[in-house]
Each structure stands twice: as structure tokens, then as C-alpha cells.
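FW: tagging you since you asked about this chain on Friday. Here's the raw sequence from the shared folder, copied in full. Didn't touch anything.
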Amino acid sequence: MLSSHIRLVRLVPTTVRLVHSLIHNPSCSFMDLKALISSLNDFASLSFAESWDNVGLLVEPSPPHTVNTLFLTNDLTEEVMEEALQKKADFILSYHPPIFRPMKRITWKTWKERLVIRALENRIAIYSPHTAYDAAPQGVNNWLAKGLGVCTSRPIHFSKAPNYPTEGTHRVEFNIDHTQEDLDEVISMLKAISDVSVTSFSARTDDEEQTRISLNCSQQALMHVVAFLSQNRQLYQKTEILSLEKPLLLHTGMGRLCTLDESVSLATMIKRIKMHLKLSHVRLALGVGRTLESQVRVVALCAGSGSSVLQGAEADLYLTEGVSLQTGVEISLF
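HL: got it, structure written out here
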């Protein structure tokens, strides 16, 4: 595993804790790239990231690749890349993804293309966690909430589990009261469809003993199931089709809605936030009729630009990088 020889440069608080959690074997001063990526993904699954984001391993040198020096940054610019080269970094963890839109070519023309070229020439891997670290239970939003004081918090928008609780994306159910021969034929035909799992059990409907057929299937298989069942009008009229949802993750998601155990004045809250973030200034926008003595009980926060996340959240204070809200009080970090 990683040792204390790893250089921590341009630190992001959450990531610093992560790297220190990996540094527990002083006898080893390096780590294989695949093992490091696995540890990073264990800390915060990439499935937590927003669908529009570009997270994970963005640049990979030809294997095998050993990481001796891990370099941390909020944004990977050409100046930061130069610093990473001076530190002889093998791996750059950039909170914001330096590669976001697809590249049609890799030339010396644009600065982002030059980043990729220099990384590959110098065998430096580039990894970005971004919104995966925002959403994680021990991630950036959770860390921001710790500066508010004693409170209970929950995500504003919950993340979903990466997998469905069972096979398939849809469940199809219907009752059949035909003979055993007809029942066996229906089950056999359904099982012949790819990506379909079928179960059956006894059910009573209108005081009649019937057989309940329940099957899980993929989106593609659903069309074949419907096509088969529609051949029998009586059977099809009894069919129920359910769209399965991935379970919500209780402590994982974008933003945090925090309820303080005790209300405090806005002035007190500003002091807490500045102390927690080690900032001398924050940008403050007061809503109509609000003052520094206004009481704060509920805080809605979001790392980064939180317009889409905070919209609709009811709170006394909104804490984010920058957003236009019509009510309440807004603190922007810069």
C-alpha cells in the first residue's frame, strides 16, 4: 500500500483523508495503479457520480504502472501539470475532470490536448472523482456540513444503488387458470425468451384457485414478452407490467439539507463557515427582510455550482459556490 513518502500537494480536504487512510504500510512506498484505482473506487463508487459527469481514470499509461508519488489538485491546468512534473508525480488526482468533452484528436493545439500529451509522455495517470466525491457519505458535501455545528443532515437528491435489487428492469405478472398443460406451455415459451426469469405460485382470485406467473426481464426482453402475451387477449388483459427502480441510498447523494439542533444567528453561522473552510471572506447575499441577526435553523448546501441541486429546497441559508435564489440567504464560496 501507499507510504508516507507520497507527496500531498494542492490538497482537497476529503481526498487528503482518503490518501492518509491508504497510507498504513510504512514498509512499502509504492502501489500498483490498478490497486490504487480499486482503493479510490472503494472510497466512493463512481456510480455515485452524476450521469453528465466524466469521472474515473481519464488517462492511463501503458501497463504495468507503479505509483510512487500521488499529486492532488482541484483543477489540472498546464501550470499545475508543470508542478506535478517537478514533483515527479506518477498519478494526478484532479477533483474536476480535465477531460470533459470527447476529443477528436490529440495535438499541441489546445491546452487540454497538451495535458494529455504531457501525461502520456511522462507516464502520469490522471483520475477525477468530482461528483462521486460530492455524493459519497464521507464526501465533500458531508465535510461541508460538519462546519455548520451540531445538526442532522440528509442528501437533497438521493443517489440510487448501481444495480437493481433483482434481475431485469421490469416485472411482468398475470394470473392463469388454464389446465396444467397450458400452464407448462406458457412458462416454457416465456423461459425461451432471453433475459427472462420466471417464477410461479398459487393465488386465489374471486374464490378461484389460479396460478400467478411473475417474471423479471430486461427492457429489450419486455418487448418479446408483451408480443407473446398479446397473442392471448384474455391472458394479456390480466397482465401487470411494473418498472423496477434501483433502491435509494440513504446517506448518499447530491447536496445536503441540514437541520441544526439549535438555531443560531446568520452572523454566527458565517463565522463557523469561515473557520471551517479557513477563509477570510465569503460572498453573502441577503434576502428581503433578512439581517445578520436573522436566525438560521435549516441550511441547504452543495459543493460546486448548486443551482439545479438547491432549486426547490426550503432553507434559511443556502451554501454553495454560486447560485441565484429568490428567497432566503445565500453564501457563495470563492
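FW: Confidence is low (pLDDT under 50) at residues 1-18, 20-27.
HL: agreed, and The longest helix spans residues 180-191.
FW: great, closing this out.
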